[in-house]
């Protein structure tokens, strides 16, 4: 019976989360209730709870996690200063005549925003407000339009700099050290957020290419689904106030070079690069004349809300992890994986399936903080490459934004989509793009070098 307590704890937290109770309170509250019950029954050591203040202090003082509010600030500044609107307006007028031209524009703009902001909600809402009316006016199929906008909005999950990669990098870094210590390696190697950024870069670009291929294929094979092929943002022949394409691309390209370039070149850590990116976004906003006191206040409030949410969940997840391990949950998971048919690959397949299914009902932050700390050390101790595992998990978590019924990208777009677009249209539209993401997972299983070669090369040079 004692061996079932970690499983019961996990199921209890899962059921409370399903009721819609705040995530951080659900994680900490249920865990503490189990701990109190365990102390009363004599199966939980009270001294284990004494590690809680140290864990919370470690979270607050974590240098890696400082990148989270900085990246959020950078993304919100770009959202509030019409960067996406200028890009979409400029590109759409220049891709006229290409099969699926407006769809291609949406993918390109989404990729550039992903590489300069990394915020899914802001990208989906902005693209939905700007491009969806024009796509519908230009007789694009509603399912294709909504699916494309949702899918490109989630590119910020896999293309660095990405908040999910920052969180995954921190969690997997700790898991990798635990895995090595459990094997008797007392000078453990480390895996950094920068390594994960480098590992995710090529798979992210491959996913963009898959999206572009799909849009062009639909335009050629089913032209009735893409209307005339392109439409300017206003649905008119030309927009007089459309900015020059180079001018429109300056802000995202500069930020990409500042952030990703400094990380990949080894000039700055991800946290330092996030600081440079935040300052760079603010300077570009001021130079463009889009920044004022009201905008700065809105940016600050949005950044504070998102950051507080992330750290509050992380504190709750830390308490859950502490209690879970106090009941012997990590040993139970290791024993379960050892008994699983197929060895490490069987265990990996089960974990990926569970993460994919949890993505239907849980947010990616909850999965990162609850599931990954439990299974990560065990999988890494079984010999999986930490960077490859991190990229695979990031891609898997990306599908959680698209999978009904609780895909957040669907909720974001539903809030700004016109009434003529049904929820079923959106569900149908995201199916091909979820399949493309799963196809990329299969490609990485066959060619893991897509995720591991660039970080290895950068470390050696």
Structure description:
This protein has helices at 5-18, 23-41, 52-60, 67-80, 83-94, 101-116, 120-137, 142-153, 163-182, 193-221, 245-264, 270-287, 293-326, 329-338, 343-358, 364-370, 372-381, 386-398, 408-414, 423-446, 449-460. The chain has a domain at 64-308 and 405-460. Helix content is 72%, strand content 0%. The chain is globular, with a radius of gyration of 23 Å. It has 461 residues and is mainly alpha-helical.
- Tell me the number of helical segments per DSSP (H or I, 4 or more residues long): 21
Summarize the amount of helix as a percent range: over 70%
* H/E element order: HHHHHHHHHHHHHHHHHHHHH
- Let me know the average pLDDT: 81
Q: What Rg do the Cα atoms give?
A: 23 Å
Main structural class:
mainly alpha
End-to-end separation: 53 Å
Major sheet, described briefly? none
What percent of residues are in strands? Answer: under 5%
- How many strand elements? 0
Unreliable stretches (pLDDT < 50, length at least 5) are 229-241
Write down the overall geometry. globular
Short description:
This protein has 461 residues and is mainly α. The protein contains 21 helices and no strands.
